[in-house]
Design goal:
The complex is a heterodimer. Chain A is of the alpha/beta class. The longest helix of chain A is centred in the middle third of the chain and has 16 residues. Chain A is globular, with a radius of gyration of 17 Å. By secondary structure, chain B is mainly α. Chain B has a domain of 75 residues: Dioxygenase LigAB, LigA subunit (Protocatechuate 4,5-dioxygenase, Chain A, Orthogonal Bundle). In chain B, 63% of the residues lie in helices and 0% in strands. Chain B starts with 19 loop residues before the first helix and ends with a helix. Classes of the chains: A alpha/beta, B mainly alpha. At the A-B interface, helix 9 and strand 9 of A face helix 2, helix 6, helix 7, helix 8 and helix 9 of B.
């Protein structure tokens, strides 16, 4: 049977894509950020997962406001990265795992999660930056697993609640574990942490709130579901709502997890950047 | 559930929630900005912005906000920041540039403000 070996969180800031392209790894501005990744890469190298579930939020490449799915699951053989309009280098396609995608879709709809299936999905920096961070050279890193993107709407309110996000993750985890092949799966929760790009409050970052979230998501994710969406915006900023992806990731993991690594740094671009590695306990 | 929680004019200072009301108001503007994912669209816009505004049926408030490259006015006209970022990209304006503009600071002062939050 399929096994979920762990979950990884990371911010997915577009500027990181450029910093990777420019190889700014030891630049004083970037070093504290990039230093958070080698321990996770080592773990991935040792574990060699077969599949990565990449939970991210589209930023206006794959979806527009004409049709905005609350939860969308990729079911494609490959995922194309396209021009987002501001000059991040375009990457080659990422191989998918549609047979597992459809198993997940079947399982989740049976579990009463009404999701949107996507046989074509252009993936933006929210998906590609984490892949590049964890598998340098992606999509041409031979250790990079086949990927299944899952996108949740944070572009337009109403966005899902934190409780729904956690429960989505639980149903996702259940569906993955019921897959009959002996494969290892790792789940990424990308985006966040606190940041706000729009309005007179642009530049809002909240270290205290981010650190609380990083602590609670390990031991007591249910407590975080008490935070209303409005309160999440107030505390984490308008784009800090991307923390929903972390909750979806967490739901898919075992109830107890071992936190193997974490890093937090302010600022990368306009954002509090957080990275965590959580290993599942059988 | 409290419906008022999602009034776009929330009590969070300096913040507009992009909800259904704003989505209705800004649809044409956001649709134009979404088109800027394509390089040809960006070139077409720069060649004749007014013709491009008309092609997407922007209203006068939206057109003026585009002419002024005024991000707060673009948001007030229904713009969504994820799509507006593509408009800003045409003029090579990054998130620190638009942050500085919206907060009335210089770009250097805005970057300094971001750095200070790491202390």
């Amino acid at each position: 049977m399929a096994k979920i070996i762990g979950g990884i969180t990371t911010s997915h800031i577009p500027a990181v894509g450029n910093a990777i392209a420019n190889e700014s790894f030891v630049d004083p501005y970037w070093k504290p950020f990039f230093d958070g990744y080698p321990p996770i890469r080592e773990w991935l190298h040792d574990q060699k997962p077969d599949i990565v579930i990449n939970i991210y939020n589209d930023h206006g490449l794959g979806f527009f406001l004409d049709q905005m799915p609350t939860f969308a699951i990729g079911a494609a053989h490959e995922y194309i990265n396209e021009d987002e309009g501001w000059g991040i280098p375009k990457l080659d396609p990422f191989p998918g795992a549609p047979e597992l995608s459809w198993h997940i879709i079947e399982g989740m709809v049976a579990d009463e999660f009404d999701i949107t299936s996507c046989q074509e999905l252009a993936v933006d920096h929210g998906f590609t930056v984490p892949m590049q961070l964890f598998w340098p050279g992606a999509p041409h890193n031979p250790e990079m697993p086949r990927a299944i993107p899952i996108s949740a709407n944070t572009v337009q309110h109403p966005i899902p609640t934190l409780k729904r996000a956690l429960n989505f993750g639980k149903a996702l985890g259940k569906a993955i574990r019921s897959y009959p092949e002996d494969i290892k799966v790792v789940v990424l929760g990308t985006g966040g942490m606190s940041h706000q790009l729009d309005g007179e409050r642009a530049g809002h970052i909240n270290r205290e709130f981010d650190e609380m979230c990083m602590e609670k998501i390990v031991t007591a994710p249910e407590e975080l579901t008490k935070i209303s969406r409005h309160e999440l915006v107030r505390q984490a900023g308008t784009q800090g709502t991307e923390f929903l992806m972390w909750m979806m990731m967490r739901g898919a993991l075992s109830e107890k997890v071992t936190p193997l690594h974490k890093n937090y740094h302010i600022p990368i671009s306009n954002t509090g950047a957080g990275t965590m590695l959580l290993e599942c306990i059988d | 559930m409290e419906i008022t929680e999602f009034d776009s004019h929330t009590q969070i200072p300096g913040t507009t929630l992009f909800d259904g009301k704003m989505a209705m108001k800004g649809y044409a503007l956001n649709k134009m900005c979404f088109s800027f994912n394509a390089a040809e669209a960006r070139e077409e816009y720069l060649a004749d912005p007014e013709a491009y505004h008309d092609k997407f049926k922007l209203n006068e408030e939206q057109k003026q906000a585009c002419r002024d490259k005024n991000v707060l006015a673009l948001i007030a006209a229904g713009g969504n920041i994820y799509y507006l970022a593509k408009f800003a990209g045409i003029y090579k304006l990054g998130v620190q540039d638009i942050g500085a503009q919206q907060t009335g600071m210089s770009v250097e002062a805005f970057k300094e403000k971001l750095m200070r939050q790491g202390d």
